[in-house]
Structures are given as structure tokens and as C-alpha cells.
């Protein structure tokens, strides 16, 4: 059947539509009139009514500005929408004061001060000396140092579980529909993710499993996808699940191993590559205390450089499905891919794999965390026999007898201890003069030392603060006195402040200070309580808090050399002024620590199974056109 509409009518209608798009000058004039009347709601409604063609970069900016002015303290939707609009502005239209100011403003009121700081400075670069921008820079720096969130993690989690409980019936119906073959996993998961939006993390994933004969409850599996740092807030989030829900739902931390017959039949497709366990071969290679899994298979024939990241992601998923996430995170976090040369293979006495073609394959490597293996170092790499991936779980259980009972909760309790060669500069940044440190979350420490902010940005988006409480006794205090003070502080955090507000993740001793490392689920509650501990311990001369944003400064609880608390900020200035300052701006005086120290100190060998390597995110690839031509394509560790 042909379209009966006359083509001339279509043309006329298109021309009429084009003529109905208002000119940018007309739109901006209308916005200015509404702005003069402080009718921000009117600006928002007007912009929403505009056709797509009329939403120019300037219009999007004014729309975002109106949302910023309309938003109130504690709200999120107006500021999130403002960020969405500003992200739609083309790159070449962002190099100006207004775009950076508006983005920084929205981030500031979302308590995302780490992300706001560079935009404030960029706004100032485009308008040097601007007093509004300068005042916001000062307030944002102070807020970043304290991270006293207007809506901390504990409140966000409580809101999620309240909303989940209210919609539990809807979720139960969705699961029942899936059981009957009429529903969709994705629909249920999408709604849960929507409720999660204020504590979500791009590294979090969730999966829904139907009730079984053994357990009549639906199961929701939350996975940090191998990222150790992301697992700590996830574990705390699940710890706070209401007890009454646990009778009807099962919430699990970390991907669990699949039944071997089920695993053998699955297939994962990412990008243009499809991988299945039955068609993959894996060779465990041990070298320099590290175990690397080298994969090959027919699917690796004709790979392009663009395929490599998808392959590594798929391989990591498959290993998790095979042995479980706890085991994958602990033992199996380095990967390599080699070109396919056929199934026939033999292993020589020296452990060197000899391909059927007689050649040694080039490799593309992904390292997901360097951990010492159980064996002593050898002169060269040692290879176990090559096997199909469907056989890997049985091999892994033989090699690591405790693998079947390993949980992600237990993995997060594992710590690494290092003896350092500290910097002797008395003005070096905190932690750079550390002599001994023990931590369950080395990724945070490593990024602090490297002045990288990826993990702290993710935490801040969730309302989580992570850092160190540092204190100093008299110069002639004994090591025993320092240890007693530190242990007293740890007990105070665990017993008096309590696990709902703080998680102790480590400790350290340095040339100048002693440290207790912690993650704060309610930063205001925890820091206010720490003031009490300082007041009760006269032997503590200096005490303060520094989060893991290295150049953010810190706050002092005790400092004999300080001139007193900083002035509290007044009303926000400028075109988007508001009367109430965010909670984070009420911090005590910031101790600016803007000097960057030299490189990382050398560390002692970590305990078996502990991470003690710099943490980075994704692939860094060698410059080759085809992976098989590369000697190695590296991806550094997840932390």
C-alpha cells in the first residue's frame, strides 16, 4: 500500500514547521523578561515547550541556569537536569565562563564538590577576578575538605530501602510474571536501578534470579564487577536491608558460581564478539608471584583492536560465573589473550606450552590486580596444562581448596601491610611520610598518592567520604603511647561512633603523625563525635581529618598553631545566589595541602592475596593494528 498523502502537502507542512521555529533572539528575549521577574518556573516551562531546533547552546544554558535557581537545598532533580542540559551543549560552546559556572553550581549543590572545583577554576580563567566565582571557589574548597553531605550515604540507603519496601508488591508481581513466562527481568531491574540512582555507581550491576526448590525467595545479586573499592559501599548498602524483607527476598553480594552444566551452555556477546565457555581454552601461567589466565579460542581469529576491551570484559564475566566473584577478585584477576592456533597442544617438562604450529603465540594482556601466588618465585613463567574453560572451575577448586566457601564479605576483610621508605620533608603531604601502613582498601591509598580522584568522585556521588584521621602526640612520646592512642581511637570509632556511621579500614604510623583510615557513611555524625574523642585525650596535641582527595586540604580538631576556626560563609553571591550554605561549608579551617610529593615509596612484599599495586581503571593498549601482532596489551589492576 502506498502513502496517500500528497508529496506537495508534505513539503508545505515541513516548510510551515520550519517557519514556526522561533528565532534564537526571540527565545532569549522571552527568557530575559521572565528572568527579570524571577520567574524561573516560567523559564523552565517555556524552554520545555520549545521544539528541538530552537534549543540552541545559549538556550540550553539559560534553561540550566533557571533550574539551578529553582532548585532548593536537599533537592536533586533540578540540578541533575541542569547537568543533563549542560552535557548536551557541544564541546566548542563550553569554553566560556557561563557554562563552567553553571555546571560547577549544579555540582556544588549536589555535594559533588570534587567535580565542581575544576569547573569553578575554569570559570575564573574566563573571567579573572570575578568575585562571585572566587567566593564559590573558597566555599567549595572548604566543603570538599569536610564532605559533610546534606544527604549522606546512610540517609540515601534508608530512602532506597523504604521505597523498595513500598514497591515490594510490584516487584513480587514482576518476578511472578517472569516465572510464568510473561514478564521481563529488565523491567524489574530498571525500576530498582531508578530507585538506586542516588547511591548507584557505574561499577554496580544487579541480577535477578527466580525462586528455586531450595529457596522460595527471589534473589537479587549485586556485583561490583570486580572493583574492590566499589564493593565496600555495596556491602554496607546490603547490610542495611530491613530484616522484614529478608523473609521474602534474598540479597547477595557478589556473583555466585554457576552450576557447571549451566555454565557450559551460556554465551556472552559484547561488541562484535561472542564467547562461550565450551569454545574457549585457558592456560594458567604463574610468574613473579602472579597468576595470569591466558585465553585462546576460535573466537579470537581476526580480532580488531576495537574488540579487545569487550573481550577482556567478557572473559572477566565468564570467570566470575565459573568460580564466583570472590575467587575471581582474589586469585584470578590477570588475563591475557593469544591468537588461536588449534586445539592440539602439549606441555613440555619446563612448563612451556608448545603450540601445534610450533610457534609461541603473541599475547594481549589484561592485568586485573597483581597478587602474589602461593608458590615461591621461579626463574621464569610456569604454565599449567591448557584446558577448556568448562574445566576451569574444577582445576581452581583443586588449586585453592577454600575456594568453594570463599565469600566477597570475607575478601573485603583481607588487608595488606607494607613497610615504607617515608619522605623526610617535614612539609610533605599527609601519608607521604608513612613508615608502616595496613589497609583493606589499597585502591584508595594508591589513588591518593598518585593524586587521582576517580574513586573519591564515585564515593562522593554516593554521599560517602573516605580518608584518614591523623593525630600527633608529644615529640618524646613512646611508640607504646602512640599505639595505645591509636587503638583507643579505633575502639572509639567502632563502639562509640558505631558501624552505621564509620567503617575502619586500616591504620598507619608515620614520621609526623599516626593515622586511622576509615570510610564515613555519615560524615557529619562521625566527625562531630571525633571532636569528643580529641577533647577527652589531653596527650593528643594535634588531630584532624583529611579525605582521600590529596589536594583538597583538611580540617583540624586540635592544632595549637591555628588562629582559630575559619569564618562561616554567608549567603551565596552572584546571579544564582541562595541564602542557605550547604552543610559541607560549615567545616572548621581547612589545612591546605596543595604540594604534590615525589613518587610512591617502596613497599614491602604484601601478604598473600592482598592488593598492593597502583589502581587504574581500564585498558592501555600498545599501538598495533591487530592484537595478535602485539607482544603485550596491558590493562592495569582494578582496586
TrEMBL record:
InterPro entries: TPR-like_helical_dom_sf
Basic and acidic residues biased stretches: 364-374
Acidic residues: bias regions: 565-574
Top-level division of the source organism's lineage: Bacteria
Protein name in UniProt: Tetratricopeptide repeat protein
Region feature Disordered, mapped onto this chain: 347-385, 559-639
Natural source organism: Sutterella parvirubra YIT 11816
